[in-house]
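Changelog note: in this version the structure field was regenerated for every chain. One regenerated record is shown below for reference.
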Amino acid sequence: MTRFLAITTAIVANTAQSAEPGKIVGGADVATMILSTLVVVAAIVALGWVYSRSKFAIAGNRDVINIVSSRALGTKERLLLIEVADQQLLVGMTASQVQTLHVFDKPVVDSSAADAASSSFAERLRSTVREARQ
């Protein structure tokens, strides 16, 4: 540890002696520093975007568990209708516990109908926004 400190101190002292006293950092140096920082930030954002896209592409649509419907009962309590292996379960969920309330043999709600209902909401929202703009 002391050897590391001695080497680091020698490098800093050597760098400080070799620097020209009174030299002012020019505009080109500042521009280079800002451009380099922007390139690094852009690379981080781009890699994050690629990672998020690849995560979904790898997973695909192999979801075994689908939430068909959800209903809030309070601030921390919810009822969930979950579809697993062509069977639907009614699940109660609180902040500290998840409990199966009922297992349905036949589907109560068709999951494709639930998807259609959500898309029809999206269409209604789009038409409402279009009407508001006019």
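Spot check on this record: The chain has two domains: 2-59, 65-133. The chain has a mean pLDDT of 79.
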